[in-house]
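**Sequence, structure tokens**
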Amino acid sequence: ASPAARKVRASDRGRFLCVEWEDGGESSYPCVWLRDSCQCPLCFLPSAGARRLLLQDLDVNIVVQRVALADGKKISITWPDGHTSEYEAEWLKKRCFSEEARAVMRADLFLPERQYWGSDLQLPKIAFEEIMCNDESAYKWLCTLKKVGIVLLTGAAAKQGELIRLGHRIGFLRLTFYGPTWQVQDKADANNVAYTTGRLCFHTDYPVLQHPPGVQFLHCIKQTAAGGESEVVDGFHVCNKLKKQNPEAYQILSSTAVDYADVGVDYCDFAVHCKQRIIDTDSRGQAIRINYNNATRDTVFDIPAEKVRPFYAALKEFNDLLNSTEHKFTYKLKPGDIVTFDNWRVLHGRQSYPSCSEVTRHLEGAYADWDVVMSRLRLLGKRVLSRD
């Protein structure tokens, strides 16, 4: 049943609206927010879901002149200038300013829950064609990707183009200087260390961009018989370990701006330079993005000389934790496998494999932004959960 209001009243000299609910709870709403959030056609454009009210027309000291409640379902406020705003009780209840209500809304919109893992990872697997044609499977894939950080899709065709299909399934892929998709194989005069047969250390892709791609897809088209195993590590799990065992190292890596550079020619010619902290954190000091790629870390280092050695010591400790057997998980992709993972959280690497005159290992790669992925997740969620 939708929530119903039992009583409404103005408080704090009209600056707040208090709503007493039938379930016994109480919510308090600032009047400046209520006026700013008026849903009438003059203040809101329903077809765009967008506010029409201009901020310069908003009185930040506004107070309620009159308030009324109809059938417990609709609250009406008259403002000092005569304008009237109406709010559905259910709409207001969802937007309650209590810590509990805000936590529920955060969980609903952003799915912040994380399942950390180490070498004990049980790699989640879902059939590729299932997520392509079944909304429940696609929803499960994206929810698991958000929570665990990695999902293996199995049974795709072992040919180029499957990632284009996957991009259409979520919305669209992220275009970068390496193209809409890119081919990971041994190439002469490689313009990227991934295009060699050598070992790739743990890294996130593209920290040289101001906004690195949030999600990465790697589709195995051909796999070498010897070597070429993939390795992954939960960067957020390792960050938590580092923060606990060496808070100073964590502070250095989450506050030092590191220079990255990538210069060359591929989809077009490029000269990209950027500064990133190895560990990006939120206001609580919790890691929200890892920006670490040793290959593209620049020789330019824009910090005082005396801070260089402490930085390297901190980075070495972080790197050692990434590479510990306790934290890393190793697996080998088969033709038709598509590994999908959180490029802000999961660092990936590759073991070396023998060089050969012909191509023995071929992966196709692509990126998507988390905004696109989360958009599709929410839309799928609405569709799937409404059927329950």
